[in-house]
Amino acid sequence: MSVDFAGAAVGTAFGELFSLVKEVVQTIAVFPEQLKKIESTLDSIVPIMKNIDEFNRRMDRKDMRQIQALINGGKDLVNKCLKVKAHNLCKRYSYSKKLTKFDTALAREFQLSMPLLAVRNTVEILGEVKDFREEFRLFTSRIANDGSLQSGLGPSGNLAVPEAPDFVVGSEVEVSLRELKERLLKEGVSMIVVTAPGGCGKTTLLTKLCHEAEIKGKFNNNIMFIRVSKKLNLTDIVQKMCQHNSFQVPRIETEESAVHHLQQLLEKIGQNPVLLVLDDVWTESKSFLDKFFFKKIKDYKIVVTSRYEFPDVDFVHHLNPLNNHEAQQLFRRSVTLTDRSIDVSDDILEQIVNRCKGLPLALTVIAKSLRGKDPSFWETKLLDWSERRSLLHSDNDVLDCLKKSLDDLDGDPSIKERFMDLSSFPEDRKIPATALIDMWVELYKLDFSGVRAIADLNKLVYRNLADLVVTRDLSEDDEDKCYSSHYAMQHDLLRELAILECNQGEVENRERLILDLTGNNFPDWWSEQKQPTLSARLVSISTDGTFSASWPNLQLPKAEALVLNFGTAIQTKTYALPEFIEKADNLKALIVTNYSFFPAELRNFHVIGSNLRRMRFERVTVPFLSMRKLRLHSLQKISFFMCSISQASASDDAKISEAMPKLVELHIDYCNDLMSLPNDICEIKLMKKLSITNCHNLSALPDQIGQLASLEVVRFNSCTNLLQLPNSIGNLRKLISLNIFDCLSLSTLPNEIGQLVNLKRMNMRGCLRLSELPRSIVKLRNLSKVVCDKEKEDLWRPLRSTLNSLNIVASEEEEANLDWLND
């Protein structure tokens, strides 16, 4: 026979003693008389002990030290008796007396002490009942007076839905409510994530949703609203859920036990629909979400709000900032609490609203700070901001909310580094993923192709620290590792937060130097006289359209990446590369972007050092052929986007292949003045990727292109004037991918194309004049994917019997997305 106690200290000790004595009586014959007396005493105590143990467990009492000491002493005594030999008469006599004494003490303790304990416990229970009655009287009185639970606590817990907001604004909210409501009203089990940066109103949206009549009608009292925050405590949540549903709160020692109790609870209440809201879940709690998911529950919904996008759940809903009209509506309501007029001009009000960037938290916080204030306070706020004082500097609530997004990155410092790097680019601009790749590959020693860089960018997107814009859905871009259609965007307030993080500490010791110059006004620490030495590894300098000064000198001995952003100018201008580049011996990546509509002339190329490995130019006039005079002996990748590159000075005997002998990738995109490529490019033996896209005036390729024996990827997509591919293309035996998408003028393929023995992918969509394939195409044994138009599918279908692994992807014409031109 065994005694089962719940686990309180006294009960556990008693159960162990009881079992031990029973076992000894049956197996040991040295002290039969004394042990049987103890056994009889224990038998009589068992019912009392069970009642006491249950009481102590419920009341969480731990003060029966005297009884526990007596029982533990008895256990030690019985264990010692086990070691006494039958022939040792002296010890038998001594331990026989000790056993008799223990039996007497045990009986006396329970006969005298237990009644006193019972009286004390009864008094305590009566006191607690009295307190409970008073609390219940106040509770019911509050309900009777105002008909609701004003405290926000549920009937038996703190998981009730918070009060519904008095006022919400925005078509985005209405769309979100409609979409989320539709999913919650469906039967079945599902998990939904509502994601957005901090301060966008995720919690407000879910509170409003839970108070919708249809949702309350379906889930009734089975709606539980749990604020999770940074650390998800599964044990605490399960206990609160039990309390909320008026069940006995269990003692939970392990996470596995918590999951077991959670499942039991949901099975009990899951006869009716259940809605569980987990508010503000951080990334480190991702692994816990699966523990809340039980498919056996009939109609069970989990809704998660998070700054992080969990891509592997049933449905992810993105909540966007407010548009300008909605932002003004929320601000006016928050600053007055009524619809009365505001005693400031519409112009001042609009300027303040614009600074909040559609973020509901910022709008309400700023509005409250200005409520009832004289117009001079409003104007002072604008003056602070115009003097480059950040909104985050002046309003701690907004700063604290947004900083939580960074606190969430403590376990992944590399992603925090990437987040701060985004501030190297101007606000409200799309950031080319290719520029980030060039920067991150060199700063963090990532793989050359940029796959890890793109993965890091997606991590920022999942955490709502950036947005990803793909201007054209071409899977070949990913397969070829070009990513030319990928752009990142960052909310302005998040950019301000990143800059605040970057600007910690003395300027000389910062890892990043982020400078936004207005006109020719340089910071005090940077002048021609001071010429400071800086430790920054990443340097970003942005100018506006009025910048015209020469660059003061800088000492950048540790700089590895330099980003130059030239602001929109009224007319085409000329910019000079800073002279200090020449002495930046560790510089590996140079990214130059002109944000004017027309290309600006760029000069001072002589300052570019031989250690540079990556260069990217956008909207500048860069005489590519004039680079023959440079000695870019470490350059591995060069990119031109919307540049003028054909203007060249009179050429000498220098060659492109001698200027950049280690070039691995050449990217030329939207450079309309490019009509042909210089022949000496074909002498660059290490080149693996040649991408010339959207160059509509390119009509011919060098006949010697077959000399580029290391080429693995060739892209000529949207070169609409390209007439033919050279016959020597057949010499590219390492070529894996060939993209001639939208080469409208291409009417034939060379018969030598059958020599591309390693070719795996080919995109010929939009090649409208291409009416037949060369016979040698059957030799492409490794060709596994062909992308073509529907009407061209018949050209390839007969080849399936020969090319066993061939997959033909035939699709309708796709309309180009030119949203990126909005910059």
Task: Summarize the model shown.
This protein is an alpha/beta fold and 823 residues long. The N and C termini lie far apart (82 Å).
State the distance separating the first and last CA atoms: 82 Å
- CATH-defined fold name of the domain at 171-318: Rossmann fold
Based on Cα principal axes, name the global outline: elongated
How many beta-strand elements?
24
Helix content: 25-40%
The CATH homologous superfamily of the domain at 171-318 is named: P-loop containing nucleotide triphosphate hydrolases
How would you state the average pLDDT, rounded? 79
Radius of gyration: 38 Å
Strand numbers in spatial order across the main sheet: 9-10-11-13-15-17-18-19-20-21-22-23-24
Structural class: alpha/beta
Any idea what the CATH architecture of the domain at 171-318 is? 3-Layer(aba) Sandwich
The profile of the biggest β sheet is: 13 strands, parallel
Which regions have little confidence, pLDDT < 50, spanning 5+ residues? 132-157, 816-821
Residue share in β-strands: 5-15%
CATH class of the domain at 171-318: Alpha Beta
**Count of helix runs:** 23
List keywords for this structure.
823 residues, alpha/beta, Rossmann fold, Helicase, Ruva Protein, domain 3, 13-stranded parallel beta sheet, 23 helices, 14% strand
